Each structure stands twice: as C-alpha cells, then as structure tokens.
Amino acid sequence: MAMDPRIRLALTVLISLLVIGGFAAVFAKGILDTWQAKGTVPPFSETYLYVATALAGLVGGLVAAGFGQKLPETPPGRDLAREAQPSRVARRLANLGAIVLPGQTQDWQRLMASLYAVVYILWGVLAIITWVAKSPVCPDLVKNLASISFGLFLAIARGFLSEQ
Predict the structure, then answer these.
(1) pLDDT band, residue 163 (cuts 50/70/90)
(2) Euclidean distance between the first and final Cα of the chain, in Å?
(3) Predicted TM-score (pTM) of this structure
C-alpha cells in the first residue's frame, strides 16, 4: 500500500527540518561557546563531536552535491533554448532541492534548498570568522566546520567560474 503523498511530504519536510535544525543548533552552541570562552577552549563531549561531525558531513554533503551537479537532461517535448534560462544560483538551488526533497513539488524543493544553503553558508562563514578571531580558544568542532566550509566555498566558486 502506497503512502499518502501528503503524509510523505510532511515526514520528508519534518526530517529535513530536523537535520538542518540540528546542524544549526549544534554549531550555534559551538560558535557561541567559543565567543564566550575566557582563556580556555570550550569542552565538548565525544558524543557531541560525533553528532556534530555527522550533521556537518550530511548537510555539507547535500549542499556540495546540490551545487556541484549538472542540470538534468532536457525533458521530451521541451525546447529549453526558447524558455527563460534560470540563473546559475537558481539551477544550483534546484539541484539541492531535488536532493533534499526528492519527488516533491518545486516550491517545497526551492524553499528547503534555500534554507539549507543559507544556514550552511551562514554557519560556515561564522565558523571561519570565529576561528580567525578567537583562535586561541577555538575548539576543533568550530575549526572543522570552518575548514570544511572554506573548502566547499572554494569548490563552489571554482564551479561557478568554470561554468559556461
């Protein structure tokens, strides 16, 4: 028996929001604790680090895949050369949306892709700034996100610059 599409959409959106919300919360705590640190590196449990690493890998991987994929083949019967071509960012967000919410409407995909991209980029930039500004007390949790984000930003920029 097939699942009702509305229930599938609700569950998919809920899981996607839990993942991005968990990522945002875990790294917000890491970044805030670093800014509030007074001379010592803020401690994080081994479990916290494992969860943070898993969430960073999942969200970062989704964003990287979304921004690194090529457009799908032209659907039969459509002449995309005559249609308005979406911007590079719009195409990348469409790719990311299709990965985060496969099989859902483009509106939901666009919304979730935008949320993932904005949160990941914002937290990545904050992690980089935190690492630079609070280097003596910056924990590995924040340094790892900063270095992974920096690498992803470079790869995305290279992709945009080399795209024809």
Answers:
(1) low
(2) 45
(3) 0.81
Residue 5: predicted pLDDT? 81
The C-alpha atoms of residue 123 and residue 145 are separated, in whole angstroms, by 8
Greatest pairwise CA separation for the chain in angstroms:
64
Nearest 10 degrees: Cα torsion 140, 143, 144, 146: 160
Give the C-alpha separation, 91 to 85, whole Å. Answer: 9
What is the C-alpha to C-alpha distance for residues 60 and 149, in angstroms, rounded to an integer?
Answer: 8
| Residue 9: half-sphere exposure toward Cβ, Cα within 13 Å | 11
Q: Show me where the domains of the chain are located.
A: 23-70+86-162
Residue 74, pLDDT score = 38
Rg of the Cα trace of the chain?
18
Alpha helices, H only, the chain = 5-36, 46-68, 88-100, 106-133, 140-162
| 128 close to 94: Cβ distance less than 8 angstroms | no
